Amino acid sequence: MTNHIHFLVTPHAEASISNAMSVIGSRYVYYFNRTYKRSGTIWEGRHKSSLVQSERYLLACMRYIELNPVVANMVSKPEEYKWSSYLVNAWGKDNSVVYHDEYLKLDKEK
Questions:
Q1: How far apart are the first and last CA of the chain?
Q2: CA 69 to CA 96: how far, in whole Å?
Q3: Which of 34, 51, 60, 89 is the 20 to 30 A CA-CA neighbour of 8?
Q4: Where do the domains of the chain lie?
């Protein structure tokens, strides 16, 4: 996306997401400011988060995130978006970070 990012994560500890966003934010801001010779913050505000409580909603969120670049007319197919989890989820591309047990169960359910 050109003006925002989506993460769908399952934390292992209560503060995991906040800690991860802090690290991502500080490292990216450092990279961005150094690359574009600027200083200061680049984020509008704190990250937003929502609790995903059901398997059905989890799959809906995954679908929304993976199709978002297509809907935004950035690519014509979801696998064309460089930062998408689509290649891992739909085509089984090896990745040690992107996976979710609920998605993997779909293959086993008949």
A1: 34
A2: 23
A3: 34
A4: 1-49, 50-110
